[in-house]
């Protein structure tokens, strides 16, 4: 997504879009040409534009044009035209079926299905278009914290309070594998980009790496001082990032099984940490109500995103790496511009804590889940 403020600063002072020397005598055709030039440049720099509302768009345009000493006679026409090109998300569908609190949701690789996990001890597969439940997996004997599709979409991995990780065949609905090794609740699980490995994290303070084909644990990583809330492979599969109740984030080298970087700055449990699409950054969220962006190479904290009024439960980059989405116990989902750190949309529609979110691979759809036992589709 384009950094909107930088975009306007650039385009407004560009020679191609400067005001006519006659000032207010600028012709109608010249005004229309300038407007279309701005729109064309906007569209050429981004496929996605997410703003809060038409009212906000008008306010931003007016403010930035005034700061740049642009004649304002054509603003009304300009913001009406540009609004047609702006995408902002709305709740379009909500469905339910779980009998317990829903802990997470995630898209399949083709964006056609959603997987969800719940305190009702089930994993469920849903059709995105219809909202119809396609499958229900039963086998865990405790709350299920995370369920995730494999990269090829043929399998789902889930982890539970019952200390196990289970793999399920999506087509048949049958349980195909149980992985045991953690000493207490398994809080997160993630497939490697090639689908050959699984990494898991637990309240037992360990991270474990599993070979899917061999069906066994091949490595154990230790370093956090308290339970580990989440773990994720980097896009190239060479690193792992983990977040913990010890208020730290650690980036690990998988081959060596050693820490590469440790990020400190949150003042509460770090609930999630996720890599950017290019693997160069990590975004995290916390019980301290903030979202933070970190540089992997330097270990530096780059930005603190403030807006949520309660603990932030989940966070993720959009596929383009320019937008971040987060959800919170404050019942909201918020979108943030990575470059400016500004909040660009606040989504409301679920009536309890929003516990999990995911973004489709094309960036056009958000799925969320809530303690109100509903799954929301936002487009």
Kindly describe this structure:
- With 379 residues, the protein is mainly beta.
- The chain folds into 2 domains: 4-83, no CATH class; 91-378, YVTN repeat-like/Quinoprotein amine dehydrogenase (Methylamine Dehydrogenase, Chain H, 7 Propeller), CATH 2.130.10.10.
- Helix content is 13%, strand content 44%.
- It contains 4 helices and 28 strands.
- The protein has a 4-stranded antiparallel β-sheet with strand order 1-28-27-26, with no helix packed on it.
- Helix 1 (4-13) packs across helix 3.
- The longest helix has 18 residues, at 28-45.
- It is globular.
- The two termini are 16 Å apart.
- 41% of the residues are buried.
């Amino acid at each position: 997504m384009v950094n909107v403020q930088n975009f306007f600063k650039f385009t407004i002072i560009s020679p191609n879009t400067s005001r006519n020397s006659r000032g207010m005598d600028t012709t109608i055709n010249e005004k229309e040409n300038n407007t279309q030039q701005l729109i064309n440049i906007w569209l050429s720099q981004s496929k996605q534009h997410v703003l809060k509302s038409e009212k906000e768009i008008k306010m931003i345009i007016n403010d930035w044009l005034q700061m740049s000493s642009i004649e304002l006679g054509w603003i009304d026409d300009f913001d009406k035209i540009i609004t047609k090109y702006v995408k902002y998300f709305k709740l379009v569908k909500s469905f339910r079926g779980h009998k317990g609190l829903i802990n997470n949701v995630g898209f399949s690789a083709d964006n056609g299905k959603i997987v969800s996990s719940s305190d009702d001890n089930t994993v469920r597969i849903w059709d995105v278009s219809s909202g119809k439940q396609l499958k229900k997996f039963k086998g865990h004997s405790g709350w299920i914290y995370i369920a995730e599709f494999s990269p090829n979409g043929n399998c789902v991995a889930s982890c539970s309070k019952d200390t196990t990780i289970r793999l399920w065949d999506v087509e048949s609905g049958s349980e195909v594998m149980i992985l045991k090794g953690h000493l207490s609740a398994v809080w997160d699980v993630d497939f490697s980009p090639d689908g050959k490995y699984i990494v898991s994290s637990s309240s037992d303070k360990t991270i474990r790496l599993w070979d899917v084909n061999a069906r066994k644990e091949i490595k154990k990583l230790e370093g956090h001082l308290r339970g580990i809330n989440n773990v994720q492979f980097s896009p190239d599969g060479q690193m792992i990032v983990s977040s913990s109740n010890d208020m730290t984030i650690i980036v690990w080298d998988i081959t060596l099984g050693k820490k590469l970087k440790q990020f400190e700055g949150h003042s509460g449990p770090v609930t999630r940490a996720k890599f950017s699409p290019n693997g160069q950054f990590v975004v995290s969220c916390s019980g301290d109500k903030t979202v933070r962006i970190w540089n992997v190479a330097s270990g530096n904290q780059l930005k603190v995103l403030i807006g949520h009024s309660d603990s932030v439960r989940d966070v993720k980059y959009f596929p383009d790496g320019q937008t971040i989405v987060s959800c919170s116990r404050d019942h909201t989902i918020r979108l943030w511009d990575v470059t400016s750190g500004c909040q660009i949309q606040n989504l409301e529609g679920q009536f309890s804590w929003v516990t999990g979110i995911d973004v489709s691979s094309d960036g056009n759809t958000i799925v969320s889940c809530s303690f109100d036992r509903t799954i929301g589709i936002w487009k």
